[in-house]
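FYI - complex with flavin mononucleotide, inputs then prediction.
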Amino acid sequence: MAAIRILTGSVYGGALLTAKAIKQALESEGHSVTVLDNPILDDITSNDDALLVCTSTTGQGEIPPNLLPFYLSLREQLPQQPGRPFGVIVLGDSSYGDTFCGAGDLLEEALCETAAYKLGDTLRIDALETTEPELEALDWVAHWVGNL
Ligand SMILES: Cc1cc2nc3c(=O)[nH]c(=O)nc-3n(C[C@H](O)[C@H](O)[C@H](O)COP(=O)(O)O)c2cc1C
């Protein structure tokens, strides 16, 4: 059984609902899951749980305000996390063109700079394609957690 911390960034609640659905599904299988809605750096440096980013994209490819302070601290301090597994689920809207799902790319870059290990391909959920992001996320996460 795995211990997982979900770093959530959300403006309108879709990514947060998705994170909560993931928590419910994984805990029913015996995993331990913490959803972090306003994370700080200490939330990841105080433990070695696997990390799952579950964020939407705002502005022009930007990170939602509730996740932005964490991201900025991470970039500034780059606490080294060699080999620590992380996955990325990012919500966006392909009508935004080049900035589609940009928040996920920013988080990925920053985590890679800490030497954390990216497990699995990023799941990009397109608001043009689905109104139920949690359904895509649950399929993806079932596979992801099996590889931890
Ligand atoms: C003001 C605004 C800006 C957005 N900017 C982007 C963007 O740059 N790239 C993108 O892929 N999606 C963008 N989106 C789409 C959201 O990421 C998408 O609707 C997402 O599902 C919202 O999730 P949330 O409910 O967790 O905030 C934007 C949405 C809004 C309202």
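The domain at 3-146 is CATH 3.40.50.360 (Rossmann fold). The chain has one domain: 3-146.
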